[in-house]
Amino acid sequence: MFGIGIFELLVILIVAIIALGPNKLPQTIIDIVKFFRAVRKTMAEAKESFDKEIELSEIKQEALKYKNTISNEVDKLTQDMKLDELRELNINDLSDSLKPLQESLTDTKKELDKEANALHSTLKSLNTELSYESLDSKNAESNMPHATAQNLESAESAQTSIATQDSTLTYKNATSSKSQDSTPQHIG
Fold it and tell me: What does the alpha-carbon distance between residue 29 and residue 34 come to, in Å, rounded to a whole number?
C-alpha cells in the first residue's frame, strides 16, 4: 500500500500491540481504516468536483466562442443593414437633388430651342433677302455694264457666310439635344 512489505507490517503491528495494548488495538485499527476511507472519499469528491469545474470551464469557453461568433454575425448584419440604408438614402437624395437639375435643363433646352428657331428664321429671312439682292444685282448687271465683280463677290461671300452660320447653328442644336438626352434619368 505505502511501499511497506510484510516484514515491516509485522514490526509495526508488534509495536502497536505493545504500545496500545490488546484492548485498544482493534478499535484503533477500525479508526485508522475509517480515517483512510474518509481521506479516500474526500480525495474522490475533490477529484469529481475538479473534473466538474474543468467541464464547466470548457462549457464556458464554448459558450463564449458561440457568443463571440453570434455577436460578430450580428455586427456584420447590422453593418450590412446600415449600408443598405445609406444606399437607399443616397439614391433617394440623388433623385431628389436631380429633379431641380432636370427641370432647369428642360427649361434651358426650351429656351435654346426658342432662340435657335428665332435665329433660324432670321437667317432664312436674311438668306431670302440676299438671294433677292443677288437676283437684283444680276439683273442690274445685265442692265448696267459698269457693275463690279467686287459687289458680286461680296454678295456671294455674305450668302455663304449665312449658310455656314445656319449649318453651325443646326449642329449646335443637334449636339445640345444629344447632351440633353444623355443626362441621367430619374431612378425610382
Answer: 9
Q: Which residue stretches of the chain have pLDDT < 70?
A: 1-2, 89-94, 132-188
Give yes or no for a contact between 119 and 167, defined as CB atoms under 8 angstroms apart.
Answer: no
Q: How far apart are CA 111 and CA 124, in angstroms?
A: 20
Which one, of 72, 86, 85, 1, lies nearest residue 36 by Cα?
1
Chain length of the chain: 188
Find out whether 180 and 101 touch, Cβ atoms under 8 Å: no
> For residues 58 and 64, what is the distance between their CA atoms, to the nearest angstrom?
10
Q: Is the pTM of this model over 0.90?
A: no
In angstroms, rounded to a whole number, what is the distance separating the alpha carbons of residues 96 and 81?
A: 22
